[in-house]
Amino acid sequence: MRKKGIRFQLIIWYSCALFAATILVFAAFYFVTRQVLFTHTDQILTSHGDKVAEVMLRQSTDMRQAMQKEAFINEFNDLPGMFVVLINNQGEVLNSSYTINSGDQVFTRLYQETLQLQKPFFRDEQVGSVAMRFYTVPLNIQNQFAGAVMIGHPIDVIQKSLNTLLLVLVVTFLVLSIPTVGGGYFLANRAIRPISTMSSQLRRINSENLNLDEQVSNPQTGDEIEELAVTFNSLLERLRLTFNRERQFIGDVAHELKTPLSTLHNDIEVAISKERTKEEYKGVLKEAFIDTNRVISTLKNILDLAWSEADSGRMKPDEINLSELIEELKDVASKMATSKHITVEGVVEQNITILGKQDKLYRAMLNLIDNAIKYTPTPGKVTLSLHKKGSKAMIYVKDTGIGIAPVDLPHIFERFYRGSKADKVFGSGLGLAIVLGVIKAHRGTIEANSKIGKGTTITIALPLVKAFST
Predict the structure, then answer these.
(1) Which segments constitute the Histidine kinase domain (predicted)?
(2) In the chain, where does the domain assigned CATH 3.30.450.20 lie?
(3) pLDDT tens for residues 369-383?
């Protein structure tokens, strides 16, 4: 089942948002208009109702006599369009400005509600075929309920006006729906077009044309879409570099394996070309043994490199007493350096622990120490030190060797990097690339500082146990 595209979702969201906003505006306009009209009507009813009640209360304590006086008749005549009803405390209609149908229960209901509330109130009622809004004022003489004044005003015109307004708003909303959806489609297309272009360009990129500087076009919009394009191009550049490194790595591995295998092949070919003496066969086997060792060593380094560059998150670390490990390496280094009359020294802080794989870390450190000893002239000195610095364990491998040329220093941890003659201290194989991978797998960092003729210092920072898990 095909999922709904982003374009469709944008159209829906845009249309729904605009519809909701339009409905809110129209509803607010309708209810504000309704409130204004009824408020104006209520003000008129209140003014006239209070006036009639005041006049009546001044006339007499006898409601029936007061209702017959000319003043009330004149007061009714002064209220054109108003429906005035006067009721006594028994609910009887004493006087009204219009003829009242005896079967009409409207005023009975209003009278009963007046008895309950004992305060002025508004009610909408249907009197015959006319919709009326009534304002009822209770009359109290000497703190006794004497009756009520009911002032009514037709609201048919208001209701018809509101119905017409509602119809206009609904029709307007329906008419606006078409351009709203059309506008949503246009804006969605405009917003999605750069993404569609990038998607099409990305589909055309593969391993064959990745090296042809293929990139997605930058829409220059100054927003998140431009940021996405820049991110894609940055990703493509990293992939391009990775592919190039892998191709170079495969070529370098093939070259490293080709030499010993070719030598082995030639030796065997020569050996079987004719009968040889026992000593000659032993010589051929000895050369074959050396060549096979070179092949095995290269393959072993490749496997170590593959492990070191694997996701460090998959490594199940063990707790390592780094102080004991460095002390052991110092002893091994002293034995390795004895024949060259090189001194091995250094201060090792005790009880420093980290998390990781001890065998991998041991071999990586041994690789560094071996390089330091191998390319330090006699007499020389190699220093191996360890101490804490904040949440890090700091390891220093320092020698007084021939140093590394500045032009080669940034590249010494690359696989199969071929340095200048001054950089023969680190050879040209996989050793330092493996060291870098192991240190990264332990969430650490490594850097080298060197001066030609004065030596090299390798600095390694590894997180302590508490820092490793955070």
Answers:
(1) 252-466
(2) 6-160
(3) 988 998 888 888 999
